[in-house]
Amino acid sequence: MTRTLCLTLLFMGAGIAFGRPVDPASFPNALLVNSRTAPVIAQESTERDFVETRILPRIQMPPGFQIEVFAMAPYARHLAVSPSGRVWVGTVRTDVWEAVDADQDGQAEQVTRFAPGIRLDVPNGPCLSPEGDLYLAERNRVLWFPEADQVSQNPQARAVPLVEQGALIPPQEESGGHTARVCVVGPDDRLYISLGQPYNVAPPSKFPLYDQVGIGGIIRLNRFPGAPLNREVVAIGIRNSVGHAFNPQDGSLWFTDNQVDGMGDETPPGELNRAPRLGPDVWYGHPHYGGGEVRTRDYQNRPIPPEKARNYVSPQVEMQAHAADLGMMFYTGTQFPQKYANAIFSAQHGSWNASTPRGAQVMVTFLDDAGQAAQTEVFAAGWMTESGAYLGRPVDVQQYPDGSLLVSDDRAGVVYRISYQP
After folding, report:
1. How far is residue 194's CA from residue 324's CA, in Å, rounded to a whole number?
2. Three-state DSSP class for residue 6
3. Tens-place pLDDT, residues 264-316
4. Cα 51 from Cα 61, distance rounded (Å)
């Protein structure tokens, strides 16, 4: 088996066991985090004035909720939030922003470029572990920043590639499409990463490679450098998931999925999925289905392999076509009314692939007593004008330490904070 298909980091440091390494500087491939001065993003600007005067007054939410600017952050995408109020903001460019709300008043006092000494490539997916380590999923690499709250304050801080450059997916499968990775630490203390496939509809020639390495799926791996990755594929048949989270009540994995373009304005539907179990035997439909149970034109005359047909899992929620469902989370706070306890908040970014624009809103999905989706409705809207122009485009939703909700917007370059005051 080749290095590309194996995708396993070998043991790299003497004395390092399967637990958390103590000194990242002991790794020969460690990267110096702060070798350059970090650019600073001004928090008072014409861009902020536009957000506060043109966007915020338009946002409609249920009674008692209010929205404000948490931080200005260009091209803001996925978020990772620490208990101290520090927020890492990924982008699909070359920057990750670090927003610091030292007094936890709901507004960041400072936003700087995180890890200015490291060259990043589509660093869309930051995520935190319970003990405060930051993981950053790029186009084709995963970095580990131990004790991330302290990294920006330590000039000698090091980051270690958990997955080396070119080893997350085979390099020949890199592309400019569907490269925004997301990650989360699961209840089994392993790292879960979604890998979008780089086509509108992946051609037959790409299988079984894609199923084997987890492209168009979700993988999990050990999250500490120095030990074997033990990489596993836990879901296949996913076109492009850019949001996933574990239900804290039952440990089940949920994820959004962006569906096939070019099939019409109102088809196929977007998806919110629940994994009944983890493993490559569970199949979520791509490339035979474009979304829900709508067959793709490319595969409509091709029989579905029997082993996949037997293990097909339909979505829990069919969302509006081309609304582009991205980031999601389970609400575990106490600030919002009780009806939102353990509800799923998710962001609809909006798509280019519809003659009538849609999306640009935050959805909420309520679960029933069995942990299944019961009802989905709009929670926050107003980022689109009456003529269909996008003023903002929500990407991710994450919970702030006080129980409020952070929402990123890559068009307006801002992270909002939604709070509740009865």
Report:
1. 16
2. helix
3. 999 999 999 999 999 999 999 999 999 999 999 999 999 999 999 999 999 99
4. 17
* Helix or strand (DSSP H, E) at 47: helix 46-50
Residues 299, 288 contacting (CB under 8 angstroms): yes
The token pair that represents 216 in the structure block: 């168009």
Q: Which residue type is seen at 284?
A: Y
Strand partners, 221: 191
Positions in the chain whose pLDDT score sits under 70: 1-18
Per-residue pLDDT tens digits for 30-45: 999 999 999 999 999 9
Side chain identity, residue 414:
V
Which of 256, 406, 409 shows the shortest CA–CA distance to 324?
Answer: 256
The answer to whether the beta carbons of residues 398 and 328 sit under 8 Å apart is no
Residue where the block lists tokens 């299988």: 207
CB 59 within 8 A of CB 52: no
Paired tokens of 211: 């199923």
Using CA atoms, how far apart are residues 168 and 278, in angstroms rounded to an integer? 20
Cβ distance 219 to 182 under 8 Å?
Answer: no
Task: Return d(Cα 71, Cα 416) in angstroms, integer.
Answer: 7
8 Å CB contact between 215 and 169: yes
In one letter, which amino acid is 188? Answer: D
CB count, 10 Å around CB of 73? 29
The C-alpha torsion from 379 through 381 and 383 to 389, rounded to 10°, is 130
Q: List strands edge to edge, sheet with 182-185.
A: 182-185, 191-195, 217-221, 232-236
Closest residue by Cα to residue 160 from 31, 247, 259: 31
User: 330 CB contacts (<8 Å, ≥6 apart)?
Assistant: 245, 246, 247, 248, 254, 342, 343, 344
Alpha helices in 216-325 (DSSP H): 306-310
Secondary-structure percent of the chain, ordered helix, strand, coil, rounded to 5: 10, 30, 55
- The contacts of residue 264 (CB under 8 Å, 6+ apart) are 321
SS3 78: coil
Q: Do the beta carbons of residue 276 and residue 283 sit within 8 Å?
A: no
What is the per-residue pLDDT for 48? 98
